[in-house]
Specification:
Blueprint lengths: L12 H19 L14 H8 L20 H20 L5 H10 L2 H30 L1 H13 L1 H7 L5 H17 L6 H17 L7 H11 L7 H21 L1 H5 L1 H17 L10 H28 L5 H18 L14 H25 L4 H27 L4 H12 L5 E4 L11 E4 L24 E5 H9 L5 H14 L1 E6 L10 E5 L10 H5 L7 H17 L3 H17 L6 H9 L6 H13 L9
Helix pairs in contact: 1-5, 1-6, 2-3, 3-5, 5-6, 5-7, 5-8, 5-16, 6-16, 8-9, 9-11, 10-15, 14-16, 14-17, 15-16, 16-17, 22-23, 23-24, 23-25
Length: 629
C-alpha cells in the first residue's frame, strides 16, 4: 500500500495519465463555482471560525486553545495554517503590512479567505478520489479503478461538501487512508505497518470523533490476519503499539483535550446529547434508515449505483473476500452507529460513500462481464456495452451536478434581501431576524433572535413579535417557519406569537420566494405596527423567567438595552434594567452594575417617576449614589 501511494509506482505511463486526468477532472468540478454566496458566508464554517479566533485579535500573542470540543481540533489547525500562509504571502507582496491590516481586510471582505479555506477542503476530497483509485485498482484492476474514481469525482454530495469548510471531508480522506493501510496489513504485518495504521486512525479521530470507530476494523484485521496467533505475545505487541500510536497522534493534535479535560467532557457530552436528541426542525419519530438509505445515498450515488454496489458485494469470490472485507466492514459499522442517532444530516453519510462507490464499480464490472458475452453473440461491440453501463451508472449523479451548478449561478435569496435592505433602510436601522445566515453590515444593525439547535422550545419567549415593535424591520423565513409547521403542537407558541402576529398586525414590505433551483429560503420582511407601545407588557417580561439558559437571556437583554439606548428609548431601557437586575440576583448571577449605571445616568430624566426608578435601580445594582452628571 505504501508503495502504491507513490505516484511513480504505477507501472505504466497510461495508468499515470489516467490517474492524473481523473484527479484534474475531480479538482475542476470542485473548483468550479467554489466562490458561491461570497462575500456572504451562508455555511457554518466552524473550522475557519475557530482558526480565526487563534489569532487572539486585540491581545498579545496567539491563543491556540479552541475552547470548543464539539469537534476535535485538527481541521482548526489546518485552517489556521491556511490563514497564516495567506497572511505571509500577502505580507511579502505588500498587501498586508501588519496583522491588523490583514484582519481589517478579511473582516471587510472575507471572499479570498473563505475561498482558500474551501480549497483546502477540496484538496482533501481530491485526495479521497486518489485513495479510491488506488484501493479499487488493488482489489479489482485498472478498469474498475478508473470507473470508481470517475464516479466519485461526480458524486454531488462530495462536490457540494468539498465547497464548504467542514470536518466531514477531511474525515473521509483519513478514513480511506486508514482502510488502505488496513488492506496492506494482509500482506505485511510488520510493527512499522501497524504503527502507521494507528497513526492514520489518530488522524481520522482528530478530524472528527467518529473516526475513532476505525479501531474496530483494526482489531478485526488483526484477528483475521492470523486467527491462531491473535494472543501471541508478538501479535499483541503490534496491536497494542498501533492502538497507542492512534491515541498519541490524537493527543498531540488535540493537546487541550488533556489540558482542559473538564471542558472537553462537557462539550463532548453536549454533542452526544445533540445526536441523541436531534436537531431543531427534525421530527424525533422520523425514520433514520429512510432518510439515509432512501434519500441521501440514492441522491449521492444514484439508484443504479446502489444496485451495482449490492451486486459487487454479492459476487465477490470467497478467495478475494479477505482483501475486500474492510470495504464492507467500515460502512456497516459506521452506518450502524449513525442509525442510532436522532440527529440527521446528509454530510454524516459522506465517510461511507467512497466504499459504496468502490463496490458499485466492482458490481458494474461483473455485470459488464456477463452482458458482454451476450452482446458479442448478437454483434454488439464491446465498447458500446461498456459506455451504456457507465451512462446508466453516472446519469443520475451528473444530472444532480448540473442542477447544483445552475443554482450557484442564481443569487441567494438572502443576498437579494441584504441588497434591498442596504438600498431602502436608512442608516442605523435595526433588522430583527432568527437563524437565517443573513448579516447586515454597518450602518445597518442586525438584531439576532436567540437560537439553539436542541431544546429550542425553551426560547419561545424570544419569539414574540412585541419585543421588536420599536425596530425598523423584522425578517421571517421558511428556514424556521417550515420547521415550526412540521410540529405545530410542539412549536405552537412560536407560530402564534411570532409568525401569526407578523402576518396579522405587521406590514409586509418585501417577499422573496426562491425560484426553482435557487439557493436560500423564502424570506419576508415586515414593518412593525405604529405607534409602538410605550413600555413592554409586564406579562411579556415575566415570560423570560422560563428561559433556563442564563447566557442566552443575558445576551438577549444586553442587545435589547444596547439598541434601545442607541435609539434613546429611555423608558424601555429603564424598564428592562429594573426587571433585569432583580432577576439576575434571583438566579445568583452578578448584575452588570457598571452598564446599568451608565445606561441610566446619561439620560438626565426630568420626570420624578423615572428618577425614582433610576435611584432604586442604582441601589439594587450596588452602585454608589450620584447626582445627575
Amino acid at each position: 500500500m505504501l508503495r502504491l501511494l507513490r505516484f511513480h509506482a504505477l507501472p505504466t505511463m497510461r495508468q499515470r495519465g489516467s490517474l492524473l486526468f481523473l484527479l484534474a477532472f475531480a479538482l475542476a468540478l470542485r473548483i468550479y463555482q467554489i466562490g458561491w454566496g461570497l462575500p456572504d458566508v451562508y455555511e457554518e464554517a466552524t473550522p475557519h471560525q475557530k482558526a480565526w479566533s487563534f489569532w487572539n485579535w486585540g491581545k498579545p500573542g496567539l491563543d491556540l486553545h479552541p475552547r470548543f470540543f464539539n469537534y476535535p481540533a485538527l481541521t482548526f489547525y489546518v485552517q489556521f495554517g491556511v490563514q497564516a500562509a495567506h497572511f505571509a504571502a500577502g505580507h511579502i507582496a505588500g498587501a498586508y503590512p501588519t496583522l491588523e491590516q490583514f484582519r481589517a481586510s478579511v473582516e471587510h471582505d472575507p471572499t479570498l479567505t473563505i475561498i482558500l479555506a474551501r480549497i483546502a477542503n477540496t484538496l482533501f476530497d481530491v485526495g479521497t478520489v486518489f485513495m479510491v483509485f488506488i484501493l479499487t485498482r488493488r482489489c479489482a484492476g485498472d478498469r474498475a479503478a478508473a470507473l470508481a474514481a470517475g464516479l466519485l469525482a461526480v458524486v454531488p454530495l462530495h462536490i457540494q461538501l468539498s465547497q464548504m469548510v467542514n470536518v466531514d471531508v477531511p474525515l473521509t480522506f483519513f478514513v480511506m487512508l486508514t482502510i488502505g493501510m488496513l488492506v496492506s496489513l494482509r500482506e505485511n504485518c510488520s510493527l512499522r505497518r501497524y504503527l502507521l495504521t494507528g497513526m492514520c486512525i489518530g488522524l481520522a479521530a482528530s478530524a472528527k470523533y467518529t473516526g475513532g470507530l476505525l479501531v474496530v476494523p483494526l482489531v478485526v484485521a488483526h484477528i483475521l490476519r492470523a486467527p491462531r496467533r491473535v494472543f501471541a505475545r508478538e501479535a499483541l505487541l503490534r496491536l497494542s503499539a498501533s492502538l497507542v500510536a492512534s491515541g498519541l497522534v490524537f493527543v498531540l493534535l488535540n493537546p487541550y483535550v488533556v489540558m482542559d479535560f473538564r471542558q472537553f467532557l462537557n462539550d463532548f457530552s453536549s454533542e452526544q446529547y445533540h445526536m441523541r436528541y436531534g436537531h431543531f426542525g427534525i421530527a424525533g419519530d422520523s425514520s433514520t434508515p429512510g432518510f439515509y438509505l432512501g434519500s441521501v445515498l440514492p441522491a449521492a450515488v444514484g439508484v443504479a449505483g446502489m444496485l451495482f454496489a449490492l451486486f459487487g458485494l454479492a459476487v465477490t469470490p470467497r478467495t478475494a473476500w479477505p482483501m475486500r472485507y474492510q470495504l464492507a466492514l467500515w460502512p456497516l459499522l459506521y452506518i450502524g452507529v449513525v442509525m442510532t442517532w436522532t440527529m440527521h444530516a446528509d454530510r454524516y453519510l459522506l465517510p461511507i460513500v467512497p466504499a459504496v462507490v468502490i463496490w458499485a464499480s466492482i458490481g458494474l464490472m461483473w455485470v459488464w462481464s456477463k452482458v458482454e458475452a451476450v452482446a458479442q453473440a448478437r454483434g454488439i461491440p464491446r465498447a458500446v456495452v461498456g459506455v451504456l453501463l457507465v451512462l446508466v451508472l453516472l446519469w443520475q449523479p451528473l444530472l444532480a451536478d448540473m442542477r447544483y451548478y445552475r443554482s450557484a449561478l442564481l443569487p441567494d435569496t438572502r443576498e437579494i434581501a441584504r441588497t434591498w435592505a442596504e438600498k431602502v433602510l436608512p442608516p442605523g436601522s435595526v433588522a430583527v431576524m432568527g437563524p437565517l445566515g443573513l448579516t447586515l453590515k454597518p450602518p445597518l444593525v442586525t438584531f439576532p433572535i436567540p437560537y439553539r439547535s436542541v431544546e429550542f422550545e425553551e426560547f419561545a419567549p424570544f419569539y414574540d413579535a412585541r419585543w421588536y415593535e420599536d425596530f425598523e424591520v423584522t425578517v421571517g423565513s421558511n428556514f424556521d417557519l417550515a420547521r415550526f409547521q412540521r410540529d405545530p403542537q410542539r412549536y405552537k407558541e412560536f407560530l402564534q406569537m411570532f409568525y401569526d402576529s407578523l402576518q396579522v398586525r405587521w406590514t409586509l414590505l418585501l417577499q422573496i420566494e426562491p425560484v426553482r433551483g435557487q439557493r436560500g429560503p423564502a424570506i419576508w420582511l415586515y414593518a412593525p405596527p405604529r405607534p409602538a407601545r410605550a413600555l413592554y407588557p409586564s406579562a411579556l417580561l415575566d415570560r423570560l423567567t422560563s428561559v433556563r439558559s442564563n447566557g442566552m437571556l443575558r445576551s438577549f437583554m444586553a442587545n435589547l438595552v444596547a439598541v434601545h439606548s442607541a435609539k434613546r428609548n429611555h423608558e424601555k431601557v429603564i424598564q428592562l434594567l429594573v426587571w433585569e437586575i432583580p432577576e439576575y440576583v434571583r438566579r445568583g448571577l452578578r448584575p452588570d452594575a457598571a452598564r446599568a449605571a451608565a445606561a441610566l445616568f446619561v439620560y438626565r430624566p426630568g420626570d420624578g417617576t423615572l428618577k425614582a426608578l433610576r435611584d432604586s435601580l442604582t441601589s439594587a445594582a450596588g452602585v454608589p449614589g450620584h447626582g445627575s452628571p
